[in-house]
Amino acid sequence: MATNITSTQLDFDQIKSSLKTYFANSTEFSDYDFETSGLSNILDVLAYNTHFNGLIANLATNESFLNTAQLRSSVVSHAEGLGYRPKSRSASKSTITGSIDLSGVAGRPSTTTLPIGTSFSASNDTSNHTFISREAVTANDVSGLYTFADILVHEGTQKTKTFLVDSLSSNQTYIIPDENIDTSTLDVKVFNNPTTNAYSTYTFLDDAITVSAITEYYDVKEAPNGHYEINFGDGVSFGKSPPVGGKILVTYNIVSGPDANGSTTFSAVSTLAVNGVTYNISVGKQIASHSGTNRQSIDQIKKLAPIQFSSQQRLVTPLDYKGMILSKFPNATDAAVWGGEQNVPKDYGKVYMSLKFPEGTTDAVKTSTYDQIKTSFTDNLSIMSIDNVFVEPQITYIETTTEFYYNDGLTSSTLSTLETLVDSYISTYFSTNLGKFESKFRRSPLLTGIDIVDRSILSSKMDIKIQQRFSPTLGTSKSYSINFPVAIAAFNGTSHTITSSGFTYRGSSCIFRNKLSSNAIEIFVPSTGTVLETGIGSYDNINGILILNTFAPTTIVGGLAEIKVSAVPQNQAVVSPLRNYILTLDGGASRSYGNIEHTDQKIVL
Amino acid sequence: MKENRIDQTVNSTLVSDILPEHFAADYPNLITFIETYYNYMDSDGQFNDVIKDLYDIRDIGTTKLSYIDNMFEEFALGMGQEFFNEPREVLRNFAKFFRVKGSLYSAKGFFRSFYNDTTSEIIYPKKDLFMVGDSASEIGPQSTKVIQDGGVYQVLSVLIKSKTSLGEYEDFYRKFVHPAGFHLAAEMQIDTNNSVTIKSETPTPLVDPDLAIENSHHFSMEHIPLDCTTLVPSGNVVIIEASPSGVFNNSAVLELDDSSGQLEWGLSYDASIGNMYGPTGLDASLITIERVNSTPLSEIKSSIDSDYYGASRHIRNYNQDSCDLNALTVSNFCFQFNAALAPYDSVGNSINFPAHRYRTIKEFCDCKPNSNYINTKYSIGSSLISDIKGKTIQETKDALI
């Protein structure tokens, strides 16, 4: 990460030169020759000392601020000052159904319970993982079959750490020496002495409603070395302090984070004992594990801590909502939030949210996340009477047509190779810089990058189109409204601003497009060059809306589910999506063309 | 340097103390050399300066401004210090600002701190909505209420009147203040040279004396229950609510109930001259704040000069045509209550005044609690009015033109 604060000039040679100048300007040493070996050596030592101290000063200065700090411990510490607690790793989760079969067993109970901590194994593409049930599930006897529905399992290995409370310090901290714990799995029990079985379960500070001298809470935060430390109250005014001579038993899960996501084929590792007899647990319905995340990165902390500070535990502005979602729900990789007054159509009294999840996230997981956001946060922290609405991200594809000129004398690569290199660069550019909410497409930096893909490339240019897709009801005449995220170019007399992919209509393979010099939409048969029908719709270029009034395709060419609608944007240099639009590349519709640049050569004899 | 800190300097005078004594005799140049080096270290721009900075690098009040932007990144969502006249003060208050976001306080604070604008108004248009069953929602040309339009005029709406254009502040306002889900409407206030303001203290070129005082002027009203000891200073402007029935309509604070046709207003009664009051038949619509304050002083003067009393403008000069504008103050205007029961005298006693008795504002305010006719005064506070307090009409008129 770049250092933003340049505390002093750190170049060794310049330091030495500066020292020489300083000495030469002093009266005592003005006539000294600093190039002689002895003095030069001394100056080397002093310059090194200066350089070394300068480095320390620079480091200390940069570590003093959240946005310039580079050490995780500094960033976490600054975030803590803003009231932000970086998220630890979180376990991958799944919900499965298990059962045991006791049919034919005499004296079987009417119900049986699958205890917390029942262990299962599952695997994904990379490795096997252990999952543990997080809550007890009770099943009824149905003809000897006990079915445990909706068993919530978390990936990880359960560990226990025991601390003894001594009298040496009034405010001890207890370190859990592991960076990979999921702090949400912490279970803290406090015993008055090491031999008793009686204990109090302390609750996490964030869950405490009020805190007094007798409130039994613990706080957990990331220690400077990346481990986690547990703190308790002072026993005076802010929470109960564990008794001197007592014992603290901490149970927690070590988790693999995202590495365990996508685990399937669950099978029980544990068995279940009923009336002294152990039975194997069969796993039935299951969903792939999800929502495992790494602990928040330095960049995420730097981004989210100030936002959370600005929200002050309230949900008022869209930024408050966004900060809350991204800091509390790390399984959402990005979020867009806007007020209903900025929605199309306007919807006052609502806050719209769109979350981006990792590829493969199921609808059930998304719905579960939406429910948690609503019940845990928006219902409690947002302005009264303001409701929230979750909408899916809208993907807008960008089609690029790139033409570059190159000097074939500067490369041994073929034209095809160069075109592939350019296509690859464009694809990488999009995956790196776009694919997120509020990410803008800027053509200029992309072209700048293309120009240096290979030293033979001399110049480049690019035309772009934006593309929306929709799934028509086949064989039925219906109206469709297709919204583009930006204004569309006005019609002209030489090219079609709107074009579609192929579909079958009245037995012909067609596309639709706008008529030249008109915003009216017509159905066109490319194979015959004839217009099959006119006036099936129109487009509003300023608002970027295409309306199809009576559109009844019978099939979509290629057996696809969607028709692609491409439009030339009004501004090809920048595409700035609003709200829940996300820009991404349609690689299949994009193409690069190379041309050899021929120059006149003169031979001088 | 902080009071409790030792000055962090690489003190060159310690060099000779630390080195063995014989160095001073044998190698004086070496000592001088090292001392010169440490002087270099302490000179401006060298690393020791940066070390000194560390002592208060996060002290908003004393750290260098070059470090302040880093704290703006942390506490102020990246706003730059160049945005503010007093960046240190603004930075200190950002947490407080965030805590009240969405409130009127935060909106005003936003314009005050971000744009140095103390005049912006935050208006809730829902107050102007026509509500069925609400007595204040009248039907007819006099109605000032607006039917909900799904835009500005709705419950979830905020209207900002500011000298700053919406385009300039919208992004920041939405980011720092505006509650999501509420309509944001804006009106830009434009000052023009055509506005006549009371601020003119030196003679200025003559303008049309009939030009009404800016009708967009806003008043703050103070609703003060009268007591018998309340005195209105001479020159103060007071509107009295009076009702012959003794039933006062508190929601119509600026109305004079003229259902009996007995209320009039004019100049104070002078017993030595006799019954010189103005015409009866008060036009209640005239007796409103807006009307009073948009009545051109030239018209008042015209009425006074002509001893006019035959029309709906009820200005009358008890001295007939010889009114001295330099001596006449606003408080000389009064109201008359023409009830069968004679009103009270200046100390609240019922005496045998003539039935038609004009009473000065002061007299109204001097009344006793058992008065059936006066219970409330409404003082109008504004730059416009306050500036004519204590001034004679002539002085005020002169100031205006």
Key terms for this structure?
heterodimer; A: 605 residues; 8-stranded antiparallel beta sheet; 35 strands; 36% strand; disordered N terminus; B: 401 residues; 3-stranded mixed beta sheet; 14 helices; 28% helix; rod-shaped
Q: What does this 3D model show about the protein?
A:
The complex is a heterodimer of chains A (605) and B (401). Chain A has 605 residues and is α+β, with helices and mostly antiparallel strands. Chain A contains 8 helices and 35 strands. In chain A, strands 1, 2, 3, 4, 5, 6, 14 and 17 form an 8-stranded antiparallel sheet that branches. Chain A has a 7-stranded mixed sheet with strand order 7-13-9-10-11-12-8, with no helix packed on it. In chain A, a hairpin with a 4-residue loop joins strand 29 and strand 30 (545-551). The longest helix of chain A has 26 residues, at 37-62. Residues 1-5 of chain A have low confidence and may be disordered. Chain B has 401 residues and is α+β, with helices and mostly antiparallel strands. Residues 195-394 of chain B have low confidence and may be disordered. Chain B is built from 14 helices and 9 strands. In chain B, the strands form 3 sheets. Chain B has a 3-stranded mixed sheet with strand order 1-2-3, with helices on one face. The radius of gyration of chain B is 34 Å and the shape is rod-shaped. Chain B has helices at residues 14-18, 21-26, 28-42, 47-55, 65-75, 87-92, 94-99, 104-115, 166-176, 289-294, 297-306, 361-365, 383-386, 393-400, and strands spanning 121-123, 157-162, 183-188, 220-225, 238-241, 263-267, 333-337, 357-360, 376-381. At the A-B interface, helix 1, helix 2, helix 4, helix 5 and strand 18 of A face helix 3, helix 4, helix 5, helix 7 and helix 9 of B.
Which ranges of chain B are low-confidence, i.e. pLDDT below 50, for 5 or more consecutive residues?
Answer: 195-394
Oligomer: heterodimer
Strand content of chain A: 35-45%
What gap, in angstroms, lies between the N and C termini of chain B?
58 Å
Shape of chain B: rod-shaped
Rg of chain A is 33 Å
Global structural class of chain A: alpha+beta
Number of strands of chain A: 35
* Average pLDDT number of chain B: 58
Order of helices and strands of chain B: HHHHHHHHEEHEEEEHHEEHEHH
Query: What's the average pLDDT of chain A?
Result: 89
Main sheet makeup of chain B: 3 strands, mixed
Uncertain runs of chain A are: 1-5
> Helical region count of chain A?
8
For the largest interface, the chains and their residue counts are:
A-B, 52 and 48 residues
Helix share, percent of chain B: 25-40%
Shape of chain A: flat
Please, how many helices of chain B? 14
Helix content of chain A: 10-25%
